[in-house]
């Protein structure tokens, strides 16, 4: 069976979706089986990012030309006209792209569109909407993003053969918002991407600490500064701890600085006098990321909306305790292996941070619980469940392992000895 996977994201730009996709592709490359995976890319950067290939994977580069000279000319004229009018291609209500036949020419049995984008085609399709945040927090999106998401997500969920989500909370949301059958929506939890990376040594950690001038003790939040990631209230919690409790808690954060949010974040940080407590490191290497995790006092995830949180998986894998918001799918994921707080209440958040920053026994207990909870997740199992979904969407017979994987939600019901 030939499975196409569309790769339209890149590291350093697309955050957790890019990390999850790379981890899935890496894990699929470790599976035995008759499947061949065709990675459909747009540029050489993506090839370099996902190389070296496993034996069961190969690349196909999308052609710049559609192969239809008349269509290419008309597309170019339309683009020039839009640019001249200052529209930058965004004219009217967005339309769902339709395949020009190139995807079909690859001889695929099933096509996985895993990164929220979607294209109509004549191939059985598996789609990942990830989450429907735009319907719950529309204020975080401009009008063009809102209309794009509503058009693409709704069309993709209604027309795909299967929909993959990471948690029951997101499944319920997709079913309720888009009116699709629950049988069409497959829950497949993710796992810790850092488990697939090389180990770091004490020398690596010392070098990383010196490279970034990291404090001796700090809380860690690795996420792009999109508004729903809620850095502002985390700042307020830190300021309250310093001013009311006399506890100075440094924060180290990795990920991209979301430009529309940068001014508000920097302004609030200055107002609260946190310039010396907050370090934004941007995107870091995989080796540095693991070292930063392992040297952190704890992970704090104050996000307002998550399908599941890759940093929580990573924190358990790297042996640090977890504090998380108590919203959307996060309580399902955390279970008893972390402390929860109200992300809208900086005082509640601050109380949890204080406990983790000062109570060694609590941290040790949560680290052990995190190890147990981490054992519930494995990217190879995630990959096998994705493969079973591909087989079912393509009309292939499922073996007993496939059927068992698709019948069980190990996020809520762990498989333990």
UniProtKB/TrEMBL annotation:
Q: Where are the transmembrane segments?
A: none
- Report the GO molecular function annotations: glycosyltransferase activity
InterPro entries named in the record: Glyco_trans_1 (IPR001296), Glyco_trans_4-like_N (IPR028098)
Q: Which Pfam families match?
A: Glyco_transf_4 (PF13439), Glycos_transf_1 (PF00534)
Domain annotation Glycosyl transferase family: ranges:
211-371
Which residue range or ranges hold the Glycosyltransferase subfamily 4-like N-terminal domain? 85-191
- Superkingdom of the source? Bacteria
Keywords linked to the UniProt accession: Transferase
Q: What is this protein called?
A: Group 1 glycosyl transferase
Which source organism does the UniProt entry give? Hyphomonas adhaerens MHS-3
| Top-level taxonomy | Bacteria, Pseudomonadati, Pseudomonadota, Alphaproteobacteria, Hyphomonadales
